[in-house]
Write a structure and sequence with these properties.
alpha+beta; Nucleoside Triphosphate Pyrophosphohydrolase; eight-stranded mixed β-sheet; five-stranded mixed β-sheet; 9 helices; about 30% strand; globular
């Protein structure tokens, strides 16, 4: 882990963290990296997600600390059990909402780079507004996120979901006031990871996915290894992996200089997947136990 000691203060200082994030992500005002992803150039659907930061209030009276706020997908949707940022595909309504975001006083218009982007690159500004509008709408639908209680901090580089043919554009935002969320049928619960825990290399592991023979063609083999983050919340152990893991750890690298430990040196977390992970609920409503994992004690 490569974190200057002064950087650790940011996990308890919201104003300083927001200033750092805006400063680092302002390098994307030119929007070049927002569009560059060779795997997602053709035949994919555009989607937007919100990487939400906010306060994690201690129930035992401890010191509040800053966390990443994620959704845990419910049994009613594909990729059940995965942790994800709220968001989804761009829809027609988002074009109207994007025009509202361009007005003075909106959270996007208060972003320090907005005036420069809107003046110098109006098409890119329009696209950014569309992406942020889609993320806000989806977050309101999924978890009841108040769009007026957010501070927009900037975009992260695009990620690509090759299996699901989708480009994912992450937008970083700060949740100012909201303490309770109203979950839709798509979300099982809200999961909050303290930045302090995410910056601890001992919370990372190797996620080994075992695939049945009849699905190897879709998952490109019988096993695949991924880095993952494991965090215990009460009696539960939550596992973060996949594209959301990439989004979160890329943010940590850009803001804190943190690097995930080499995957070869990590303890293993085995998991089994089947077609329910991709297809979701079966036609008769039944669902198999398609995802099981056995987190190791840390």
């Amino acid at each position: 882990m490569n974190i200057p000691p002064a950087d650790l203060d940011l996990v308890f200082d919201a104003a300083a963290l927001r200033k750092r994030v805006v400063s680092v992500l302002s390098e994307f005002c030119g929007m070049e990296t927002l569009f560059q992803n060779e795997d997602c150039q053709y035949g994919v659907r555009t989607s937007s997600v919100l990487l939400l930061l906010g306060w994690l209030l201690s129930e035992d009276g401890g010191i509040p600390e800053i966390c990443v706020i994620l959704n845990k997908r419910s049994k009613e949707v594909k990729q059940f059990g995965d942790l994800c940022c709220p968001g989804g595909a761009v829809e027609k309504l988002d074009h109207f909402l994007a025009r509202l975001l361009a007005f003075p006083g909106s959270s996007l218009s208060r972003w320090p780079c907005w005036s420069e982007l809107k003046t110098g690159q109006p098409q890119n500004a329009e696209f950014l507004a569309l992406l942020y509008a889609a993320g806000l709408r989806e977050a309101w639908e999924e978890m009841g996120l108040n769009p007026f209680g957010l501070t927009f901090l900037g975009p992260l580089p695009t990620q690509c979901l090759i299996l699901f043919r989708r480009s994912v554009h992450p937008m970083v935002a700060w949740v100012s006031y909201q303490k309770r969320f109203h979950l839709s049928w798509e979300v099982e619960r809200i999961v909050q990871f303290p930045l302090r825990a995410l910056l601890n290399p001992f919370n990372y592991a190797l996620y080994r996915r075992f695939v049945p023979p009849h699905l190897e063609w879709r998952f490109r083999g019988a096993t695949m290894d991924f880095p993952c983050f494991i965090y215990k919340i009460g009696k539960r152990a939550e596992v973060l992996w996949g594209v959301t893991f990439k989004i979160v750890t890329q943010f940590l690298e850009m803001i804190f200089g943190f690097h995930v430990p080499d995957i070869e040196k990590l303890p293993m977390v085995p998991a089994c997947l089947d077609e329910e992970y991709v297809l979701g609920r079966t036609r008769n409503g039944a669902r198999q136990n398609y995802l099981s994992y056995m987190p190791l004690d840390h």
